[in-house]
Amino acid sequence: MGIVRQLAAGLIAATLAFSVAAQDAWQEGKHYERLANEVSASSSEGIEVVEIFWYGCGYCLEFEPYVQAWKEDVADDINFVYLPAPMNRAAVEHAKAFYASEAIGARDKTHDAFFQALAGERKSLNSASDLADFVAGQGVDREAFLKAYNSFGVKAQIQRAMSVLRGAQVTGTPTMLVAGKYRTSPGMAGGYEEALAVVSYLVEKERGTDAE
Hints:
It is built from 9 helices and 5 strands; from the N terminus they run αββαβαααααββαα. The chain has helices at residues 2-21, 58-71, 89-103, 107-120, 128-136, 142-149, 152-168, 186-189, 192-211; strands at residues 33-34, 47-53, 78-84, 175-178, 182-184. The model is unreliable at 1-5 (pLDDT under 50). The protein is of the alpha+beta class. The protein is globular and about 50 Å long. It has a single domain, classed as Glutaredoxin. A hairpin with a 3-residue loop joins strand 4 and strand 5 (182-184). Helix 1 (2-21) crosses helix 9 (192-211), helix 3 (89-103) runs antiparallel to helix 4 (107-120) and helix 3 (89-103) crosses helix 7.
């Protein structure tokens, strides 16, 4: 994904420059929506930016290099959160795999690999055993992964993710939430780069609100 990430970084830089120069281009109700009720995906401080994704989503796979490039240049006041979307039976298992990997400090080894396997190669990894075998192939301790996968902590994170999806009325992936107040997506914004430009615009909007 190195070449794709470099390309994404260049496109994002150009798009964000445009967004700063033409902020009036992003319209509420068209490129983004204000949530009826605020939601929060974490307890950390800062302006929360959430990417809601599913490892089996082809659009999420295409979007991910852009997100990773965008994340590299964000300011210290940004609290970026990955939120796997447990929207169906398989997605629940994949969300548990994300949180289990995170719990044992293995997300750097598994995140891109899960995307490639599930969205890119359409592998059938829909059980704890299959997912554990897969992460073992990525150099992750299989038993540690399974213990985390079946833990109360991961189950609680799944419930919280479901609550965020309900509160933000998320119906598809990828979706971005900003400051618990706004929802946008590549579909709403008009593309991957545009979605991140809208996110940056909303971040600046939130900074202006905080300064008032």
